[in-house]
Amino acid sequence: MQAGREFLMKETDLDNGHGTVKERILKEALYLFSERGFEGTSLQSIADAVGIQKPSLIYHFPSKEDLRRHVLESLVAYWKNELPRILTPADSSSDRLVSTMTSLINFFVEDLNRARLVVRELLDRPEETFALLSEQFSPWTRLIGDYLRMGQQSGLYRKDVAPELFIVQVLVMVIGTVAIGGATSGLVSTESYTPRGLLIKELVRIVQASLYSEQP
Amino acid sequence: MQAGREFLMKETDLDNGHGTVKERILKEALYLFSERGFEGTSLQSIADAVGIQKPSLIYHFPSKEDLRRHVLESLVAYWKNELPRILTPADSSSDRLVSTMTSLINFFVEDLNRARLVVRELLDRPEETFALLSEQFSPWTRLIGDYLRMGQQSGLYRKDVAPELFIVQVLVMVIGTVAIGGATSGLVSTESYTPRGLLIKELVRIVQASLYSEQP
DNA sequence: TATAATGACTACCATTTGGTAGACAATAAT
DNA sequence: ATTATTGTCTACCAAATGGTAGTCATTATA
């Protein structure tokens, strides 16, 4: 069966409706990695999802490992951009800690795959992910930690909060809730997943109750 | 290179130091599944870890899927036994809710692979795991929910706690902290994992602060 | 217009995967 | 003592995997 090879569409860097091939690969890879895990996802399945052949995929990302890094990088890049904006004292209307958490929640809820991917990375490559978080974000979390300590001295926050540990716990709770909260709700429901909104509402309540001092 | 096949040890059901072959397989499978994931673990690697050949492994567990189910079953079985004991009003000395959470934490801290495996299952097979939790544990969590509501009426617990959602969140926090807390602590440390004990201490603080009413 | 670079393809390939077939030794049952 | 069962092994196998080689059309560059 000789090929024929009649037309061979070629995609330039210009966006023609669905984005660059490279972007589409990253999108499908994020989805499949987060849904089935890195090891559980074949390059073939990604190529199929994008609608190209495997070697075309490998042309854009020379190895599976390379693709993984780029997928992860896109998440990191987002936060390296966003964090300065969020933590800049632009509006002092609401608590900066809570607004940061809100941004965090929104980011992960907007696309659940992000949370799932992060959790998988933390499980699959703990040391590597530890190092990445440390390098990319520890300055920012130190800032938040200081902010938290100030709030403690001013009496806004509880004195028994352990700032650094609290920050870690909040992240664990947020990505945990988004990534596995739905399925975990099988504990209390026989019908279907508890709406994520409700879970997050309770999460926010827990965080606030364990953070703020009681003002009588 | 002809085999030789000089001795062929055979293991009976009797324990000869390291447990039955079947038990050793389950142990290594739990470890490898939780560390590398189901898809990331080959039957060969499990057989190597146990010190047998692959077909011997398949003799005991006819398929990889079958092995997975048995590994999971051993965790479920433990809690089906333990929960009645814990929730029985034996000692009313300490809060039953907190003592249950303590048992939960101890179980997962005792062997970190347990928490990692549960998280992986929740990610890899959300619907299936939802159903399993629902079938096996929802009666028990309903009991805890009622207990929580009683405590609310007596004024012990905060009125704004949403019992069912709170229970789900506590489980998410506990297994989240044990499974990914260490690596997540890269956010605030450049050196090494934050000791799990500290993370858990803050976790317990958060839970208690968000559960108990302030008694002035 | 000729030439180089890009991006897609077909056809492979070595390795690993989950799993099977069948031989064989040790133990248990008759 | 003979037979059946159990558990382990060696030797395979088809399918899938990550990746390579090389072809060819389109686009950009000279």
In percent, how much strand structure appears in the residues of chain A?
under 5%
For this entry, what is the oligomeric state of its chains? homodimer
CATH architecture of the largest domain in chain A: Orthogonal Bundle
Name the biggest interface.
Answer: A-B, 66 and 66 residues
Using DSSP, what is the number of strands of chain A? 0
Write down the overall mean pLDDT of chain A. Answer: 91
What's the tally of helices of chain A? 9
What percent of residues of chain A adopt helix (DSSP H or I)? 55-70%
Low-confidence blocks of residues of chain A: 1-6
CATH class of the largest domain in chain A: Mainly Alpha
Per the CATH scheme, the topology name of the largest domain in chain A is Tetracycline Repressor, domain 2
> Radius of gyration of chain A, Cα only, in angstroms?
21 Å
Explain how this protein is built.
The first copy, chain A, is mainly α and 216 residues long. Chain A folds into two domains: 8-70, Homeodomain-like (Arc Repressor Mutant, subunit A, Orthogonal Bundle); 94-209, Tetracycline Repressor, domain 2 (Orthogonal Bundle), CATH 1.10.357. In chain A, 68% of the residues lie in helices and 0% in strands. Chain A has nine helices and no strands. The first copy, chain A, has helices at 21-36, 43-50, 54-60, 64-87, 96-110, 112-124, 126-153, 163-184, 196-209. In chain A, helix 1 (21-36) packs across helix 2. Chain A binds a DNA duplex (30 and 30 nucleotides) through helix 3.
Keywords:
homodimer, mainly alpha, Arc Repressor Mutant, subunit A, 2 domains, 68% helix, globular, DNA-binding
